[in-house]
Amino acid sequence: xxxxxxxxxxxxxxxxxxxxxxxxxxxxxxxxxxxxxxxxxxxxxxxxxxxxxxxxxxxxxxxxxxxxxxxxxxxxxxxxxxxxxxxxxxxxxxxxxxxxxxxxxxxxxxxxxxxxxxxxxxxxxxxxxxxxxxxxxxxxxxxxxxxxxxxxxxxxxxxxxxxxxxxxxxxxxxxxxxxxxxxxxxxxxxxxxxxxxxxxxxx
Length: 203
Prior knowledge:
Elements: H1 3-12, E1 17-22, H2 29-38, E2 43-51, H3 55-61, H4 68-78, E3 83-90, H5 97-113, E4 118-123, H6 131-137, H7 146-158, E5 165-168, H8 188-197
Parallel strand pairs: 1-2, 2-3, 3-4, 4-5
Helix pairs in contact: 5-7, 7-8
């Protein structure tokens, strides 16, 4: 990043909030600090893809190549430099519906315990040329039931969290997914719209 160019663009277009997404293992604390110091007019938000706090799921279901302990180290180093949001992945391959729900609940608890207050839950959508596409074709993976998203929302509300912002991401992505969470033909559209439009995941 050319800081002089970035500064001019921010000034010209009156930008005061800048958002970025990153793998937490790609973050350099010193470079991040220097960037923030060089651009005092912006309020930097960084979204970090963690996916789960369960190391077994990270290793065997997602092949993440990182661990929760590594995430905690990076989080502690940068939490006072930038605003942080964390992404979790809802139902990666090889998990049952119940295991996926329980993983999200335990991951939310783990993140809150270390001070994370902004979490986005991303239901997995199947894309072409991926392992999940192969598993889907072999009838070894089924995208989330919409009921599971509703159940997760219910469990989160029972946790009675304070000062915590938890949201669910939409199902529409580019490129267009091969498959997204669904129920049966009779109720998929209704509950999909209800989840997107009606359910409040900000607690």
